[in-house]
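Consider the tokenized backbone below.
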């Protein structure tokens, strides 16, 4: 089986994002996802960006990063701290997002976390949701 190339963000946008992220040295990994990553963005589309650091980001850091990204791109920003992202969002980001900052080691660690979460927690989450659904519909 041949390795598939990693999708990349459009270079002007990726460069713009990396320039903003460089002013936030605590961020060492970022993935663009959503319509901008898929190439289906409209003029009113927001910027969906998942970021990682060596620790969870503080609220003031998140606010500053959102502000800087919005000013640079002219778009509303939906920022996800990967330290706090759970399933199924993490899986969607990894499956459909494009890396704009960070190395393969960090990407691989996120993939490992995702696979462990899916194996450990998703079956339990499904059982809980099924039980709630059964109580709600009375069957």
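A designed sequence for it:
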């Amino acid at each position: 089986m041949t390795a598939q190339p990693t999708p990349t963000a459009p270079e002007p946008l990726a460069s713009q994002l990396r320039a903003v992220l460089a002013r936030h040295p605590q961020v060492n990994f970022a993935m663009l996802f959503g319509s901008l990553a898929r190439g289906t963005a409209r003029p009113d589309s927001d910027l969906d960006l998942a970021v990682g650091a060596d620790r969870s980001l503080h609220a003031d850091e998140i606010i500053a990063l959102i502000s800087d990204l919005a000013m640079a791109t002219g778009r509303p920003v939906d920022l996800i701290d990967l330290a706090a992202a759970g399933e199924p969002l993490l899986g969607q980001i990894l499956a459909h997002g494009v890396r704009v900052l960070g190395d393969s080691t960090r990407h691989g660690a996120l993939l490992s976390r995702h696979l462990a979460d899916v194996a450990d927690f998703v079956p339990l989450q499904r059982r809980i949701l099924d039980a709630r659904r059964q109580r709600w519909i009375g069957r």
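The beta strands are 27-33, 47-53, 77-81, 98-101.
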